[in-house]
């Protein structure tokens, strides 16, 4: 089960990146084996996959890139977690990750928080995005197809500019050393205005 919805036209240039992001996850698993999924880790690992997908889509990226950060009236040096660009378009991303329970995503506050952080990077005229990676987990048993569909439905209801999800059937039974099942990953983007 995979898909994406881009509701903000400014983010349409990210479509090829998100399409290739799915391929990057599969390639990682093909090489590393089914005992480890890249999205189990943290936002830095997932930003690496997103960055790789951008290069596959003929874009450029730079992680932890220096930019100008605006805090109140005083500008201070800061860094964006990821800069992504084509010849015509660019965006600065501030990212975080959550590992919520499969049946309780509760992403609204986390998305607001990271979007608030993104607001303070770069200039008001630049496209700044809060980026929330979500690796749902379920203890002791894998998620049912119905639970996965409910999660996708919940993701689509989130107030964001773009969302992509990847819950492949083959990964449904993957679990980490602690016995938690992580059936896949989603990423949500929200424009930070101001």
Q: Which short descriptors sum up this protein?
A:
9 strands; alpha+beta; 7-stranded mixed β-sheet; 194 residues; globular; 31% strand; 29% helix
Explain the overall architecture:
This protein is α+β, with helices and mostly antiparallel strands. It has one domain (about 1-190). The protein has helices at about 15-30, 45-55, 110-120, 145-155; strands at about 1-5, 60-70, 75-85, 90-100, 130-135, 140, 160-165, 180, 185-190. The strands form two sheets. It has a seven-stranded mixed sheet with strand order 1-7-9-5-4-3-2, sandwiched between helices.
**Main β-sheet, spatial strand arrangement:** 1-7-9-5-4-3-2
Helical content stands at 25-40%
Indicate the mean pLDDT.
Answer: 86
Distance between the termini: 35 Å
Secondary structure layout plus pairing:
Blueprint: E1 2-6, H1 15-32, H2 43-56, E2 60-71, E3 74-85, E4 90-98, H3 108-119, E5 128-134, E6 138-139, H4 145-157, E7 162-166, E8 180-181, E9 185-191
Parallel strand pairs: 4-5
Antiparallel strand pairs: 1-7, 2-3, 3-4, 5-9, 6-8, 7-9
Please summarize what this structure is.
By secondary structure, the chain is of the alpha+beta class.
